[in-house]
């Protein structure tokens, strides 16, 4: 086991160490040994940590907000800023996951997520943006053209897969993506993308 850990790629080792730290330690800055922080205090502490100079601290703060779900709604503007401007793609992707966990209450983030889906150079960040748009649901209907383009043209399979799923989650308002979904069913090289496109067509036109 020791040899395996030491021989792991640096990026994988970093993720492992961050995960262990996240599981075994309370990363909320707002908590003390004697008095547990309220949810609002924890959210406020994580919002502050999203601007920390250390990439790992920002990543952990975004992960904490993701685990809080809808109660972290006041963090939406800070998460949007992280998605649009953070230099670390892992932080950007985790911020999108936090927005996804907040769900429809994160609807103000739709334009920011469209930008990430359309222009971010990192595959996982684009995929997370598509997932977040789907989690917002019908309120993300303005993202339908961008999701259809991602489904048709993105080179990364997971982006196309999650774009297809997101269109189904948006529902009938995504009817404008019908041609893109049909084309994916007929011609996408990835079987999972094709399957999700079929499911989404049913969701859009039950």
Termini separation comes to: 51 Å
Per the principal axes of the C-alpha atoms, what is the gross shape?
Answer: elongated
Helix amount = 55-70%
Structural class: mainly alpha
Summarize it:
This protein has 206 residues and is mostly helical. It has 12 helices and no strands. It has helices at 2-6, 10-24, 39-49, 55-68, 76-85, 89-102, 110-119, 123-136, 144-153, 157-170, 178-187, 191-204.
Structure description:
With about 210 residues, the protein is mostly helical. Helix content is about 70%, strand content about 0%. The protein contains 12 helices and no strands. It has helices at about 1-5, 10-25, 40-50, 55-70, 75-85, 90-100, 110-120, 125-135, 145-155, 155-170, 180-185, 190-205. The termini are far apart. About 45% of the residues are buried.
């Amino acid at each position: 086991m020791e040899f395996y850990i030491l021989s792991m790629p640096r990026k994988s080792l970093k993720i492992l160490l961050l995960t262990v730290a996240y599981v075994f330690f309370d990363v909320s800055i707002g908590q003390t040994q004697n008095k547990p922080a309220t949810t609002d205090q924890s959210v406020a502490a994580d919002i502050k940590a999203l601007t920390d100079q250390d990439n790992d601290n920002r990543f952990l703060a975004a992960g904490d907000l993701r685990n809080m779900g809808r109660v972290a709604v006041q963090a939406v503007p800070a998460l949007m800023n992280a998605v649009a401007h953070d230099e670390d793609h892992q932080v950007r992707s985790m911020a999108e996951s936090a927005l996804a966990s907040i769900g429809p209450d994160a609807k103000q983030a739709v334009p920011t997520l469209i930008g990430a889906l359309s222009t971010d150079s990192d595959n996982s960040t684009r995929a997370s943006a598509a997932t977040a748009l789907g989690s917002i649901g019908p309120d993300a209907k303005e993202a339908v053209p961008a999701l259809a383009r991602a489904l048709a043209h993105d080179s990364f399979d997971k982006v196309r897969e999650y774009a297809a799923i997101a269109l189904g989650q948006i529902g009938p308002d995504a009817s404008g993506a019908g041609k893109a979904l049909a084309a994916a069913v007929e011609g996408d090289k990835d079987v999972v993308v094709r399957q999700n496109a079929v499911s989404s067509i049913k969701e859009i036109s039950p």
